[in-house]
Amino acid sequence: MQSQQLFDHGRRRPENRSTWPPLVGDHLTVSIQPDIEQPVAHAGWRVLAPFQSREYRLLIAAVSVSIFAEGMWAVVMTLQVIALDNDPMSLSLVATCLAAGLVGFVLVGGLAADRISQRAIIITVEAVNTVVVSAVAALGLVGALQIWHMAVAAGALGIAAAFFFPAYSALLPRIVPAEQLLAANGVEGVVRPVFQRAAGPAVAGLVVGATFPSLGAVVVAALFGVGLVLLLATREPIEAAASQPDQQRSRLLRDLRDGFVFVLGTPWLLWTLLFASMFVLVVLGPIEVLLPFIVQERFAHGAQTYGFILAFFGMGSALGALGVSSTRLPRRYLTVMMAMWSVGSLPLAIVGVTSSFPLMAAATFVIGVTDGAGMVIWGTLLQRRVPPHMLGRVSSLDFFVSLAFMPVSFAIVGPLSKIVSMEVIFLAAGAAPVLFAAVAVWAAKMRRDELDHPLR
């Protein structure tokens, strides 16, 4: 859950410090928000306010190209695996390697984001993406590509993503002031689903359906290369004065421990992450591994149809994110967020049983709307209620805890589909999050917490 770059030459104390939770240890929190005077955007266009920064414009352009490539890759990878071996077990293997790379290294990525240049991290990630997908494309074009190649490539891309997300999240509060964070997260909340979940999959489905998967990989590699060039055009931000002398900085293990202590001592954060981990366990496997086979079995022109089904999810996510970011943060922000993610998963039951394209598209659209809206609220909460000096670590723990069961979900759903019908699997995936959310809201006393910590 995530975000960006630039910044200014000065530093000031935050004006809304009272909204932050207690600090961990003896660290002093120093604001690194920009001092640049910026005109106040009209309330109806507050989502555009972050674009006043040149570095933000460059970075979001690079990220947009990159996530468009990621959206294409999700479909290209799936269809390439199916072309090599039309078996859910093989797709489970490749998806598990991707998830294992992400989960296995995300804590390291968070520690790196708090210690070294976030710009250098995301440039390195983009270079790795370009090289890995180029290798897959080359092997496919010469007819030498095998399932194990896809598994290794997926693992490498997962590791790269583990370093990208914490760095991106820790960077955004250094680009825009606190009052623009909701808008900046909304921009990503619109761009990511439009390009990664809508346009990318749709274009990939058309390209692969008309040609073959390796040509789609060539296009993806080229897009990653364009993103790399744009990132290289950005400037290294000028660092604010360190909050502590170098000789007093914590060791890696102490940093990680402090992050865990903060999460364990913050109920709304802890129980949201526990909810997310269970949500991932029951939902991601069916969507990522089984949905392609459902589409292939029930619809003609499976590659194109699969791309369009994902596109409807992406369009819904974009509208949900845009709707939330264009208004003030809900007063009951935790309750609204949990309701979006839990009740919004119910249409998965329809996905499992329907053979109607319009009905399946509508179901995925609704899921996308609620997912996009919830993600914008979540990203804003991390950046508003987590001290800046710990944001990288907490973001990495966010990904680690919430995605811990992703490899398990991917690994078991393929074999499970051999003994349990896909209809039953999708029914469980749609209904279980409602129960998980109810437990989390009650255990963390979220309704009381959001009133005690107003963010409007």
UniProtKB/TrEMBL annotation:
It comes from the Bacteria. Keywords: Cell membrane, Membrane, Transmembrane, Transmembrane helix. Coiled coil: none annotated. The keyword Transmembrane applies. It is found in: Cell membrane. One of its GO terms (cellular component) is plasma membrane. PANTHER family: INTEGRAL MEMBRANE EFFLUX PROTEIN-RELATED (PTHR23513), STAPHYLOFERRIN A TRANSPORTER (PTHR23513:SF11). This is Uncharacterized protein. It comes from Mycolicibacterium vanbaalenii. The lineage of its organism: Bacteria, Bacillati, Actinomycetota, Actinomycetes, Mycobacteriales.
